């Protein structure tokens, strides 16, 4: 049987896994930057940018009919994707995509947006390489701990699936729904990588003695639901922005944002109260555990504060990015605390 060289030690595997998780998390930051600057269509094609390995510095480097050229390529890709959806039985979604007028709008070149999107893609490639190495190195555990290999494999597969979905996001001109799936799927890759690390012999996510895993499960599901509602709210922002009704009297027109935004606005308060109640409950018996609940509550408070700024000052770019990054970090940290193997405290 094929054996990996000794250089690929447990420590090397561990570091590669941490790099894979960190690089995927960094994509939340870069993706947030792409989103708030409107750079999602900075490169109208994928994986290249305007047909080049690196974005041009001016439209003088592009053919005169570049808009039509890339529009036709995008339409062809969209038609292939819609056909695939029809074969899977999702005819309504396929029809929605085919009838979306935004898809048929050509994209003008903007050097700043092109490079922002391009940097996001470069780090996506870097995350893919770390995930590939992590998956290859997990082969050494195939006979001793099959869970490690399976989790690393699933993490790599979901990352590849999300990369493909990213190309569909570009092809469909940031079609609502697909953008949300693209964002939420990123969590699965990190979770599978963390599972693989947590099952590695000699490397566990240490925390204090606890019997509170049910609470962590509730907090995890609640945090993921809040993030999902946030993606729906962000898509509504795009719709209102196009219609010119995003702001009213200098304040975000939150009354027009729908039910998803209302739930996204108030559920973090419930999350915060629940986390601080758990902190108070555990601070005497299990102080280590109490601190983690306290951190979760503080993150929720920061999210609420950033959300208030976004509403009252109509989505400033800096607070938008911070809101996205903190929103992504919360389910990851909670998942980390949830699957951490307890260490008995004598």
Can you summarize this structure?
This protein has 346 residues and is mainly α. Helices cover 68% and strands 1% of the residues.
Give an account of the 3D structure:
This protein is mainly alpha-helical. The chain has two domains: 1-203, no CATH class; 205-346, no CATH class. It has ten helices and two strands. The chain has a two-stranded antiparallel ribbon. The radius of gyration is 22 Å and the shape is globular.
The structural class is: mainly alpha
Q: For the residues shown, what is the average pLDDT?
A: 85
User: Terminal Cα separation, in Å?
Assistant: 44 Å
- How many β strands by DSSP? 2
Encode the helix/strand succession as letters. HHHHHHHEEHHH
Number of helices: 10
**What does the largest sheet look like?**
2 strands, antiparallel
Percent of residues in helices: 55-70%
The strand line-up of the biggest sheet is 1-2
Q: How much β-strand is present in the residues? A: under 5%
Dominant shape: globular
Helices and strands in order:
Layout: H1 10-36, H2 66-87, H3 91-98, H4 111-137, H5 146-171, H6 178-198, H7 213-243, E1 247-248, E2 251-252, H8 259-282, H9 287-312, H10 317-339
Antiparallel strand pairs: 1-2
